[in-house]
Write a structure and sequence with these properties.
The chain contains three helices and no strands. The chain has 135 residues and is mainly α. Helix 2 runs antiparallel to helix 3. The longest helix has 95 residues. The model has no long low-confidence stretch (mean pLDDT 77).
Amino acid sequence: MEFQQDIIQRNELEYPDNYFSYEHFDIDMRGRWAAFAVGRAAANSRSQAAMQQQQQQADMAMQQQQQLAQQQAQAQQAEIDRLRAQQSQQTQNVQASSSQGDVTEKIQKLGDLHQKGLLTDEEFAKMKMQLLSQM
């Protein structure tokens, strides 16, 4: 019995009479809800920060891919331009060599006509000079 009284006295010291009332319970629950709300807000904040960081990383990766694609496109365009210039130069060389061949053939024909006596020395020289100026 002493033991029970001792426990009751200790409980009275530790817990006041109104400790287990609804009012105390309500205050205690409000504190718990507030702690839960603060904890939830902190978790939301961390979650949003993590999502923003992921979005920034994704944006950076996208920008790097776009820059790489742009560099590749520029390199391809430069190669196309180089090949076109090379082709144009080759075409000009072919045309120049063919026109030189044509002029040479025409001069030979004029020489044959001159040897046969169909062209005078003056006519041959004049036509020869005209063909040479075309080269």
